[in-house]
Design a protein that fits this description.
The chain is an all-alpha fold. It has one domain. It contains 2 helices and no strands. It is rod-shaped and about 225 Å long. The relative contact order is 0.03.
Length: 192
């Protein structure tokens, strides 16, 4: 059985002959009771302090666990974000490469079309130059032909004019003889 300071203080010793001095025993018991009471109070205070510290340790343990969980979650999230960022970067790079290949392919096709157009235009220019040259040559030949015809027509006109002039003069003189070489009929200019 544990003794409390009150038990110690209220405890009465039986007195016997020649026993202890009751005043000294009571003083000693009071002293012990006070010491025990102080120790009990100190113990109770320490128990409360221990309970408070245990509560604080529990709270800190919970906080520590929460922080650890948060840290693990943050690390996992960070890794996920890194992986997502890497994947997005790879996708963006792939899309950029595909776009650049399409642009390059389109540019090459356009360059090939332009080269083909230039080749066709050169061929067309050569054909047109040949056709124009041919047309000019044909027109020159026609002009030369017309100039020859004009010269021939002029010569025929002069001959006819000379003949008519000669006939007129002969008719005025009265000795007009019909031309034996040329039968009467339409004039050579009538065809033209």
């Amino acid at each position: 059985m544990r003794l409390t300071p009150l038990d110690i203080q209220n405890h009465r010793f039986n007195t016997r002959l020649r026993g202890y001095d009751p005043a000294e025993v009571e003083a000693f018991v009071r002293l012990i009771a006070e010491d025990v009471e102080a120790l009990v109070r100190e113990r109770d205070a320490l128990r409360q302090q221990v309970r408070a510290l245990e509560t604080r340790v529990d709270e800190l343990s919970v906080n520590e666990k929460t922080l650890k969980d948060t840290l693990v979650t943050a690390q996992a999230l960070s890794e996920d974000l890194k992986k997502t960022a890497v994947k997005e970067a790879e996708v963006l790079i792939s899309e950029a490469e595909v776009k650049s290949e399409k642009i390059l392919d389109g540019t090459q096709r356009r360059a090939a079309r332009l080269a083909e157009d230039i080749r066709e235009m050169r061929m067309l220019r050569a054909r047109l130059a040949g056709a124009i040259r041919g047309t000019i040559e044909t027109h020159l030949e026609l002009l030369e032909g017309l100039a020859k015809e004009e010269d021939e027509t002029e010569m025929l006109l002069e001959a006819r004019f000379s003949e008519l002039t000669a006939r007129r003069q002969a008719a005025r003189q009265g000795t007009e003889e019909p031309d034996a070489e040329e039968p009467p009929g339409p004039s050579p200019l009538a065809d033209r």
